[in-house]
Amino acid sequence: MTSRRLFSLAAFAAALALAPLALPNDYYVNILILCCLNALIVMGLNMLMGYAGQVSLGHAAFFGLAAYSTAIATATLGLPVWAGVLAGVAVSTLVAWVIAVPTLKLHGHYLAMATLGFGIIVSIVFNEAVDVTGGPSGFVGIPKLTLMGYAFTSDKAMYALCAGVLWLATLVSMRVIDSRTGRALRAIHVSESAAQAMGIDIARSKRFVFVLSAVYAGVAGTLYAHHLTFVAPSSFGFHFSVQLITMVVLGGMASIWGAVAGAFFLTSLPEFLRMFEEVDILIYGGLLVACMMFMPDGLAGGVKALLRLAGRRARG
Amino acid sequence: MLAGAPQYLVSGLTVGATYGLTALGFTMIFNTTGIINFAQGEFVMLGGMLSVAFLKAGAPLPAAVLLAVMVTALAGALIERGVIRPVGRSAAVNLVIITIGVSILVRGAVMLLWGKDAFAMPAFTGAKPLMLLGAAVQPQSIWVLSITLVILAALKLFYSRSIHGKAMLACACERKAAQLMGISVERMAMLSFALSGFVGAAGGAILAPITLTSYDVGIMLGLKGFAACILGGLGNPFGAAAGGLILGVLESFGAGFISSAYKDAFAFIVLLVLLFAKPTGLFGGPRSDRV
Description:
The structure holds two protein chains of two kinds. Chain A is mainly α. Helices cover 76% and strands 3% of the residues of chain A. Chain A has helices spanning 3-18, 26-51, 59-76, 81-103, 108-128, 130-133, 155-178, 180-190, 192-197, 202-228, 238-251, 256-273, 280-294, 298-315; strands at 139-140, 146-147, 150-151, 230-231. In chain A, the strands form two sheets. In chain A, strands 1-4 form a two-stranded antiparallel sheet. Chain A has a two-stranded antiparallel sheet with strand order 2-3. Chain B has one domain (2-277): Orthogonal Bundle (ABC transporter involved in vitamin B12 uptake, BtuC). Chain B starts with a helix and ends in a 14-residue tail after the last helix. The A-B interface holds A 49, 55, 102-103, 105-110, 112-114, 116-118, 120-121, 124-125, 128, 238-239, 242, 245-246, 249-250, 253, 278-279, 281-282, 284-289, 292-293, 296 and B 36, 83, 86-87, 90-91, 93-94, 97-98, 100-105, 107-109, 111-112, 219, 223, 226-227, 230, 234, 261-262, 264-265, 268-269, 271-272, 275-276, 279-281, 287, 289-291. Chain B: It holds the Pfam family BPD_transp_2.
């Protein structure tokens, strides 16, 4: 790992640790938790989309599958919370592993459609399997997270956990991207046939990154369920999948920090827009369009361009 | 068991016609610009909502529908001119995000203007059902199917006979060559947005008397339209229309014979199975990816 990577990881850890201190009350800590969880999913999705070039319009489903699995395991079946978390992550991993093979054979818009269809089917099941999931009104009574005797009941503790998990995931992502597999993924993005000619097992690499992104979403899903103690199908629908993609693209494709920035920005944006009452949805849409029109490489690209500009100025 | 079949077929074809018109809109924009326009469902919603608004403002029904369709076509052209053209040839994903942003804007604006209620629209010619082969057919269903057929026939003529239609096909085929032949690719892109606004809104306006309309009907209609156009093979307008009808019928049979709770899922399950078996759609060519 280069010293630059180490430095940015350390800075990120510091920023995550200091963030709650800058906030006036616990309500904002809640939003920070959601930011961290979304950033976790988006980081996985960014590896799939930004590095491997594979679009998924159904990632909310993996998030939801894990959330509902742990909810059912702990609240309905009465298993211990850590077992629920394991089950949740296992379910989303397994489902991703099974659907990866037929899905990833598709390209472009067909791949987008297949993942979209998968996401919609899953969210319809959440809505309609009322006996198991509680249907549209949601699943209540999910226990708070406990780990080796420690209960994460306060928002601050939960934030510390989520931030820690996000930081670890960042580390893992960096290792993956810098590895042989990471290079293989980038090669696939540029040209599948060229990658194949270089001896890369395309199917295996794609499946690996697809399943890895589902693991990220699964971890986020279990943490989400045990944090809110309540889940409802509307949180895992098409709309959320689209939001995730928007976070990836707005943050900047193929950039870990872009994924984090996109997720934090778009998750907290509605909170800032609250004061505009009903007009907030218009502003959200307008900002989305404007950002894409004037910052085509996302926030990460925008910052990079600014830095380059500043550098050129400084040099004269 | 099969007693309900004709009934399901009729209602499936009726809804399927709207999916088909939505899919047609997707295809027209995709062909000339290579963009999947996620605001397509919003065109359908605008068709219904604007018709209702014009009706309330006192316009007679045919005028209200015509105005709604025209305004939506204009909105389509404005979208192309305002947010798509300035971006030029940027990455496909970025363009998709822009159209998503536009769809949020349009939905939000309609919600602010007319609220979150669902609106009913009167049927074009009465609501007394006709009996046809054991199925009660609403006159509106006949309107929907015949208007869809008329639009399809008109488009067929437009593409094969008119200079603009041929120019649009040329853009779809090879942009650079089309440009070199003196075709304004930009104007064709604008025309395709206007045309798909027109077709989508027509679908929304004729379906509104059957299913009610509200500010958020565009999402599901847009998704089904996208599914229909993938089912028919992306880029093939008549495949798209056929895909819509097939999707509508499958959904209606699924809801009737298996479970109405999972109605919306059937279309997507069938689509997934098809995609896995034949990855380019029913009527698609050997391979077509532009992302």
